[in-house]
Specification:
By secondary structure, this protein is mostly helical. 40% of the residues lie in helices and 8% in strands. The strands form three sheets. Strands 1-2 form a two-stranded antiparallel sheet. A two-stranded antiparallel ribbon has the order 3-4. Strand 1 and strand 2 form a beta hairpin. Helix 2 crosses helix 7 and helix 4 packs across helix 7. The protein binds heme C. This is Methanol metabolism-related c-type cytochrome.
Protein backbone atom coordinates (compact mmCIF):
# COMPACT_ATOMS: atom_id res chain seq x y z
CA UNK A 1 0.00 0.00 0.00
CA UNK A 2 1.34 3.41 -0.94
CA UNK A 3 1.59 6.19 1.60
CA UNK A 4 0.39 9.58 0.52
CA UNK A 5 2.50 12.53 1.59
CA UNK A 6 0.86 15.56 3.16
CA UNK A 7 1.57 17.48 -0.01
CA UNK A 8 -0.07 14.74 -2.01
CA UNK A 9 -3.17 14.81 0.19
CA UNK A 10 -3.36 18.58 -0.02
CA UNK A 11 -3.13 18.43 -3.79
CA UNK A 12 -5.85 15.81 -3.84
CA UNK A 13 -8.06 17.85 -1.55
CA UNK A 14 -7.62 20.93 -3.70
CA UNK A 15 -8.41 18.91 -6.80
CA UNK A 16 -11.60 17.57 -5.20
CA UNK A 17 -12.61 20.95 -3.88
CA UNK A 18 -11.98 22.45 -7.30
CA UNK A 19 -14.10 19.77 -8.86
CA UNK A 20 -16.92 20.38 -6.43
CA UNK A 21 -16.71 24.09 -7.08
CA UNK A 22 -16.78 23.57 -10.83
CA UNK A 23 -19.85 21.38 -10.44
CA UNK A 24 -21.66 24.00 -8.44
CA UNK A 25 -20.69 26.68 -10.89
CA UNK A 26 -22.07 24.63 -13.76
CA UNK A 27 -25.50 24.37 -12.20
CA UNK A 28 -27.93 26.14 -14.52
CA UNK A 29 -29.46 29.32 -13.25
CA UNK A 30 -32.81 28.97 -11.55
CA UNK A 31 -35.25 27.35 -13.97
CA UNK A 32 -38.22 29.53 -14.78
CA UNK A 33 -41.34 28.50 -12.91
CA UNK A 34 -44.00 26.91 -15.11
CA UNK A 35 -47.04 29.00 -15.89
CA UNK A 36 -49.37 27.40 -13.37
CA UNK A 37 -47.48 26.61 -10.19
CA UNK A 38 -50.60 25.72 -8.23
CA UNK A 39 -50.59 22.23 -9.71
CA UNK A 40 -51.23 19.53 -7.17
CA UNK A 41 -48.10 17.83 -5.88
CA UNK A 42 -47.65 14.48 -7.57
CA UNK A 43 -48.85 12.34 -4.68
CA UNK A 44 -47.38 8.87 -4.81
CA UNK A 45 -45.08 9.76 -7.67
CA UNK A 46 -42.75 6.98 -6.51
CA UNK A 47 -45.44 4.39 -7.15
CA UNK A 48 -45.01 2.07 -10.11
CA UNK A 49 -44.25 4.46 -12.93
CA UNK A 50 -45.36 2.31 -15.82
CA UNK A 51 -48.59 1.16 -14.26
CA UNK A 52 -51.54 1.88 -16.54
CA UNK A 53 -54.36 4.10 -15.39
CA UNK A 54 -56.43 2.77 -12.55
CA UNK A 55 -59.97 3.69 -11.71
CA UNK A 56 -60.17 5.98 -8.71
CA UNK A 57 -62.88 5.63 -6.08
CA UNK A 58 -64.52 8.89 -7.04
CA UNK A 59 -65.43 7.32 -10.36
CA UNK A 60 -62.75 9.23 -12.20
CA UNK A 61 -59.47 7.85 -13.43
CA UNK A 62 -56.01 8.64 -12.12
CA UNK A 63 -52.47 7.74 -13.12
CA UNK A 64 -50.16 5.97 -10.70
CA UNK A 65 -48.25 9.26 -10.37
CA UNK A 66 -51.40 10.88 -8.94
CA UNK A 67 -52.56 12.74 -12.01
CA UNK A 68 -56.32 12.98 -12.41
CA UNK A 69 -57.37 12.08 -15.96
CA UNK A 70 -60.97 13.23 -15.62
CA UNK A 71 -61.87 15.97 -18.13
CA UNK A 72 -63.36 18.82 -16.10
CA UNK A 73 -63.51 21.91 -18.28
CA UNK A 74 -62.92 22.97 -21.84
CA UNK A 75 -60.92 26.03 -22.80
CA UNK A 76 -59.73 27.11 -26.23
CA UNK A 77 -61.18 23.89 -27.58
CA UNK A 78 -59.07 21.75 -25.25
CA UNK A 79 -59.96 19.67 -22.19
CA UNK A 80 -58.37 20.11 -18.74
CA UNK A 81 -58.72 18.28 -15.43
CA UNK A 82 -59.80 20.09 -12.26
CA UNK A 83 -56.21 21.24 -11.68
CA UNK A 84 -55.91 22.79 -15.12
CA UNK A 85 -53.66 20.09 -16.58
CA UNK A 86 -54.54 19.09 -20.16
CA UNK A 87 -56.24 15.70 -20.59
CA UNK A 88 -57.73 13.75 -23.49
CA UNK A 89 -61.46 13.10 -23.73
CA UNK A 90 -62.85 9.89 -25.14
CA UNK A 91 -66.57 9.45 -25.75
CA UNK A 92 -68.35 6.17 -25.04
CA UNK A 93 -68.38 5.41 -28.78
CA UNK A 94 -64.59 5.81 -28.99
CA UNK A 95 -64.57 9.31 -30.48
CA UNK A 96 -61.58 11.39 -29.34
CA UNK A 97 -61.50 15.13 -28.79
CA UNK A 98 -59.87 17.18 -31.53
CA UNK A 99 -56.76 18.04 -29.46
CA UNK A 100 -55.83 14.36 -29.21
CA UNK A 101 -56.05 14.05 -32.98
CA UNK A 102 -54.01 17.24 -33.37
CA UNK A 103 -51.45 15.74 -31.00
CA UNK A 104 -51.20 12.62 -33.13
CA UNK A 105 -50.47 14.76 -36.20
CA UNK A 106 -47.90 16.97 -34.47
CA UNK A 107 -46.21 14.09 -32.71
CA UNK A 108 -45.91 12.33 -36.07
CA UNK A 109 -44.38 15.45 -37.64
CA UNK A 110 -42.03 16.59 -34.86
CA UNK A 111 -41.24 13.75 -32.47
CA UNK A 112 -41.77 10.48 -34.35
CA UNK A 113 -38.42 10.65 -36.16
CA UNK A 114 -36.55 10.04 -32.88
CA UNK A 115 -39.17 8.70 -30.47
CA UNK A 116 -40.63 6.14 -32.87
CA UNK A 117 -44.16 5.74 -34.25
CA UNK A 118 -47.15 6.05 -31.89
CA UNK A 119 -45.01 7.02 -28.88
CA UNK A 120 -43.54 3.53 -28.81
CA UNK A 121 -39.89 4.59 -28.52
CA UNK A 122 -36.86 3.69 -30.63
CA UNK A 123 -33.34 2.49 -30.04
CA UNK A 124 -32.36 6.16 -29.89
CA UNK A 125 -35.03 7.84 -27.74
CA UNK A 126 -37.43 6.68 -24.99
CA UNK A 127 -41.10 5.67 -25.42
CA UNK A 128 -42.91 8.91 -24.63
CA UNK A 129 -46.22 7.10 -24.08
CA UNK A 130 -44.53 5.67 -20.99
CA UNK A 131 -42.68 8.86 -20.04
CA UNK A 132 -45.98 10.73 -19.59
CA UNK A 133 -47.15 8.19 -17.02
CA UNK A 134 -44.08 8.88 -14.91
CA UNK A 135 -43.16 12.54 -15.53
CA UNK A 136 -45.75 15.09 -14.53
CA UNK A 137 -47.05 17.62 -17.06
CA UNK A 138 -44.68 20.37 -15.95
CA UNK A 139 -41.61 18.13 -16.17
CA UNK A 140 -42.73 17.07 -19.64
CA UNK A 141 -43.11 20.72 -20.68
CA UNK A 142 -39.72 21.68 -19.31
CA UNK A 143 -37.89 18.92 -21.18
CA UNK A 144 -39.80 19.63 -24.39
CA UNK A 145 -39.03 23.34 -24.11
CA UNK A 146 -35.37 23.20 -23.11
CA UNK A 147 -34.22 19.82 -24.40
CA UNK A 148 -31.96 17.37 -22.65
CA UNK A 149 -28.64 15.74 -23.32
CA UNK A 150 -27.02 12.60 -22.03
CA UNK A 151 -23.78 11.61 -23.75
CA UNK A 152 -24.49 11.66 -27.48
CA UNK A 153 -28.23 11.34 -26.95
CA UNK A 154 -29.63 14.74 -27.78
CA UNK A 155 -33.19 15.85 -27.19
CA UNK A 156 -33.56 19.17 -29.03
CA UNK A 157 -35.25 22.20 -27.43
CA UNK A 158 -38.69 22.90 -28.94
CA UNK A 159 -39.64 25.99 -26.95
CA UNK A 160 -39.09 28.31 -29.91
CA UNK A 161 -40.42 25.94 -32.58
CA UNK A 162 -44.03 26.99 -33.09
CA UNK A 163 -44.93 23.88 -35.07
CA UNK A 164 -44.26 21.90 -31.91
CA UNK A 165 -44.80 24.43 -29.11
CA UNK A 166 -48.23 25.71 -30.20
CA UNK A 167 -49.39 22.08 -30.03
CA UNK A 168 -47.36 20.81 -27.07
CA UNK A 169 -50.50 20.24 -24.95
CA UNK A 170 -52.03 18.28 -27.83
CA UNK A 171 -48.90 16.12 -28.06
CA UNK A 172 -49.07 15.59 -24.30
CA UNK A 173 -52.72 14.46 -24.26
CA UNK A 174 -52.16 12.28 -27.31
CA UNK A 175 -49.30 10.55 -25.46
CA UNK A 176 -51.50 10.14 -22.36
CA UNK A 177 -54.15 8.47 -24.52
CA UNK A 178 -51.46 6.15 -25.93
CA UNK A 179 -49.87 5.42 -22.54
CA UNK A 180 -53.16 4.51 -20.89
CA UNK A 181 -53.94 2.27 -23.90
CA UNK A 182 -57.18 4.17 -24.47
CA UNK A 183 -56.02 4.97 -27.99
CA UNK A 184 -54.67 2.16 -30.16
CA UNK A 185 -51.67 2.62 -32.44
CA UNK A 186 -52.14 4.60 -35.64
CA UNK A 187 -54.32 7.51 -36.64
CA UNK A 188 -57.29 8.08 -34.28
CA UNK A 189 -60.26 6.58 -36.17
CA UNK A 190 -63.05 8.75 -34.78
CA UNK A 191 -62.51 12.34 -33.70
CA UNK A 192 -64.51 15.44 -32.89
CA UNK A 193 -64.53 18.36 -35.33
CA UNK A 194 -62.14 21.24 -34.88
CA UNK A 195 -63.89 23.99 -32.92
CA UNK A 196 -63.77 27.73 -33.63
CA UNK A 197 -62.10 28.26 -30.24
CA UNK A 198 -59.36 25.80 -31.15
CA UNK A 199 -58.79 27.53 -34.49
CA UNK A 200 -58.68 30.96 -32.84
CA UNK A 201 -56.10 29.86 -30.25
CA UNK A 202 -54.05 28.12 -32.93
CA UNK A 203 -54.01 31.23 -35.12
CA UNK A 204 -52.99 33.48 -32.25
CA UNK A 205 -50.16 31.13 -31.24
CA UNK A 206 -48.84 30.52 -34.75
CA UNK A 207 -49.05 34.17 -35.78
CA UNK A 208 -48.34 35.75 -32.40
C1 LIG B 1 -33.50 14.57 -32.69
C2 LIG B 1 -34.17 13.52 -31.96
C3 LIG B 1 -35.35 13.90 -31.09
C4 LIG B 1 -36.51 14.56 -31.45
C5 LIG B 1 -36.90 15.10 -32.82
C6 LIG B 1 -37.32 14.62 -30.26
N1 LIG B 1 -36.68 14.03 -29.21
FE1 LIG B 1 -37.33 13.92 -27.27
N2 LIG B 1 -35.64 12.94 -26.72
C7 LIG B 1 -34.63 12.58 -27.58
C8 LIG B 1 -33.62 11.85 -26.83
C9 LIG B 1 -32.33 11.26 -27.39
C10 LIG B 1 -34.06 11.79 -25.50
C11 LIG B 1 -33.32 11.19 -24.29
C12 LIG B 1 -32.42 12.27 -23.77
C13 LIG B 1 -31.72 11.95 -22.49
O1 LIG B 1 -32.03 10.92 -21.87
O2 LIG B 1 -30.89 12.76 -22.09
C14 LIG B 1 -35.33 12.49 -25.48
C15 LIG B 1 -36.10 12.66 -24.32
C16 LIG B 1 -37.34 13.27 -24.29
C17 LIG B 1 -38.14 13.40 -23.10
C18 LIG B 1 -37.79 12.85 -21.72
C19 LIG B 1 -38.29 11.43 -21.67
C20 LIG B 1 -38.06 10.72 -20.35
O3 LIG B 1 -38.62 9.62 -20.19
O4 LIG B 1 -37.33 11.24 -19.51
C21 LIG B 1 -39.28 14.06 -23.46
C22 LIG B 1 -40.44 14.45 -22.56
C23 LIG B 1 -39.18 14.33 -24.88
N3 LIG B 1 -37.99 13.84 -25.35
C24 LIG B 1 -40.16 14.96 -25.62
C25 LIG B 1 -40.10 15.16 -27.00
C26 LIG B 1 -41.17 15.75 -27.77
C27 LIG B 1 -42.49 16.20 -27.21
C28 LIG B 1 -40.73 15.80 -29.07
C29 LIG B 1 -41.46 16.38 -30.27
C30 LIG B 1 -41.99 17.72 -30.12
C31 LIG B 1 -39.38 15.25 -29.09
N4 LIG B 1 -39.04 14.85 -27.83
C32 LIG B 1 -38.59 15.17 -30.21
C33 LIG B 1 -34.54 12.86 -28.92
C34 LIG B 1 -35.47 13.57 -29.68
Amino acid sequence: MTHLTTAGLTAMFLALAGHAYAQTAEQPAETPAPAATEAAPAAGAEAAADAPAETAEAGGTALANGMDLTPDKMENGRWYNAEGVPVFKKEADGTFDYATFSGFRRYSAECHVCHGPDGEGSTYAPALKKSVLRLDYYDFLEIAASGKQEGNLVMPAFGTNKNAWCYIDDIYVYLLARGTEELPRGRPAKRADKSDEFTAQEDSCMNG
